[in-house]
Fold this protein.
Amino acid sequence: MSSYILFLLLGLGSGAVYAMLALGLVLKHRAAGVVDFGHGAVAMFIAYVYLGLRADGTLQFPWIVIPHELTLRSSGLATIPAMVVALVYAAILGVVMYWTIYRPLRHATPLTRVCASVGTMLALQAIAVLNYGTTAKSTPTILPSSPLKIGDITIPSDRLWLAGIVILLAAALGAVYRYTRFGLATRASAENERGAALVGLSATRIALGNWVLATLLAGLAGILIAPISTVDPTSYTLFIVPALGCALIARFTSFGVAAAAGLALGMLQSEITKLLSVWSWLPEQGLPQAIPFLFIVVAMTMLSRGVGARGGTVELQNPSLGRPSRPYATTLLCFVAGIVILMALHGSLRTAFIASLVWIVLSLSLTVLTGYVGQVSLAQMSFAGLSGFVLSHLTAGAGLPFILALPLASLAAVPLGLLIGLPALRLRGVNLAVVTLAAAFALDALVFNSTWFGGGLAGRAIPTPKLFGWDLGIAKGDTYPRVIFGVVVLLFTCGAGLLVARLRTAPAGRMMIAVRSNERAAAAAGIDVARTKLLAFGLSAFIAGLGGTLFAYQQQNISPPSFAVFTSLSLLAVTYVAGVGRIAGAVVAGIMLSSTGLFVTAADKWFGVGEYQALVAGVALTLTAIKQPDGIAASPPPPLVALGKKLSGVWAGRRNGDTAPPAATPVGGVVER
Amino acid sequence: MADVLVTEGLRVTYGGVVAVDAVDLAVPEGQVTGLIGPNGAGKTSMIDALTGYHLPSAGTVRFAGDDVTRLRPHLRARRGLARTFQSIELFDDLTVQENLLVARERIGVARALRDLLLPLGTGDADASAADVDWALELTGLADVADRLPSELSHGRRKLVGVARALAMRPRLVLLDEPAAGLDTDESQELGARLRDMPGEGVTVLLVDHDMGLVLGICDAVHVLDFGRLIAAGTPAQIRDDPAVIAAYLGGAREEETPVA
């Protein structure tokens, strides 16, 4: 019995981190209405700053080229001074981030802010890798960790310290928000920013104050957890998943619930580790990581309330939609342009173009889901991954030919899409995004990482696609990549594009757009809102699954990391800033913005972006979100508009400029240079 | 003449507040029936209960002979019980014509997928288009069919809401304050159009607090006050009903003098 309690108490350590991060997320949401996916990355960054100060007294700045180190004391700082300096650093980082990113975005849609936060997360992660490398670091203890005997169990006392700190923090925050003028002002401006301004409260100052407080909390969490879990750029950033879950359970408002949920989740995870050794029938891998999802689902089902009726309509700005007027002609044009590009490019650039085509398919899956029906999913790469692995089982395993295996594998993602779509019947917007993220995380840990299904570290092989004995594979002998494989991918990409373009003006598409605009009115018009959403989820999963199978054929060997949840985050962010309501947006996302796509590869090849590529991508994403919240494709740069008009004049003189012929223009620009 | 919609003992509560209490209402087919009452009388609560947006805590709603008390909103719409909203609530990303089309076309998942994969025209499309044209014609919106709702005036946006309900070719349409925010001319024009509805096979339940419009075009009028029906009759009877006058002028019952 006592060992069960021991594991419960050991879980207080990670539970405290989830709780502290969740408190920060609640603060940020109350202050600025932002669900910050980069919150874990901030904790990671401050932890590194602290480690640097402790180890050799150097303070690292988040820039790269110009001198970015300052040695304060070469023998290293003591614990308390290092913590103080690191927290001051965190406060400054908070001010800068709020002022440069979230203040300009305070009137943008919640999704735009999510994209900006994904950008900052990627950027901070990239800086951490550049500055500190990817090897995990550890640090001497901060809190007293002498073993403590309670009854017949002995646990390190730092776990109890951490839990105590969290409870104190939650109580203090709760008190501040209930009883102080600052707290009252925050609540007032969260209710109604203009009203608060009318009674003389500066919404900006209040939000800034809260933001800095939240960043300090993140920093504190990062520093305090460092001794019990080694610091590295990825795992720290991933703390955001359980933390978001806890904040969601707290409805992004209650400090007490957030803290309690965090501690409970940590203990539950730890207890599962113990149970694994007792109940041998439990799956060996991934269960602790999957727990947050189950936790969230159970909690949300228990807490869930109905949607408000009269006057309760949420005013959500939706991304603008394109209106493809000549889908067949445009598709044909794109296909021809794609063939030309495939022939013109060689080597790494041709590979990059094929990667762009695959990414376009993945982005199109979001055009349906987020663009047309307004639902947010952070599980798109899970659909792609499922199809990819199923493809491997069907071909390498069961020996099915390409022509059967590809559609079957793509369809395999549909049930998963319907399953992940179920929460969408009750949840909306960013809340839905958090649940899908947790689901993707659970799926990754439980299914993809099982050796049988995902092939473990070695991955699973994908045999060369053959059509009636005709080799369509990407490699043959020394030839790589082959044009014929590019043509196959192009064919499917154009097919997916045509499908999504036709959906826009088809009855089903109208139903989706009606649901996106106004669910109450849609029901009054006789539309089954639930089925329409599920239809979109199924279709989106199918398209993402198609992307996954094409990706698998391109890679020839796939392993779980390719479908990690952060790829899904990047996919949503990149597609959203490119223009999620348009086919052209998906094309821009694939060719210009995807990290393995044509533009980035070309930039790397000619200008040597090299190791800074991840950083550039993150910063570019954040900047685009700030500068063009409606998406690049919604307001293409003037030269492109002019070119588009000219082309449309040549083509038929009847097309409307809204849907410039996608692939041809941006790619042409790159190739000619 | 049969009643197309009948309620018995309808009671609607929000938390502890009783919005509608023990209402027995009958809407005869082929007429324009009015439901009026001062602000806060429970008119919109009534519509929400009739169309399934808020389930009543007691009583029944029968539509075309069937008990629909607990049926979900979209299924009532499909049976021919259409409604509009006080706050318009159009699909802002669809053109006026598409707003109507999406209400008229009623397709299942199988049809939706078949349409997408096999790009062939279907016979039903013509019928849909005909109904949409009919509704546009009836509401005088044919000239703006291809515009987005956001480009129209407030009055015409309200008409789009009405047209969208009509495009479904409903047996009964519930109009929630269609005249609110319209100027006098627009209101009169709307009234004339509503008067024509029964001739087109559409029964109308007009809910408004604009006495002039309702008394001007309805065959029968019911008056709601504090959640209860306080009067019913022809417009002439309602106009002279002391209880109605009292409800509208407030507190008049006790003093008697201002009414006289």
Observations:
- The first strand of chain B starts at residue 3 and ends at 14.
- Residues 252-260 of chain B have pLDDT under 50 and may be disordered.
- Residues 1-80+170-260 of chain B form a domain with the Rossmann fold fold (CATH 3.40.50.300).
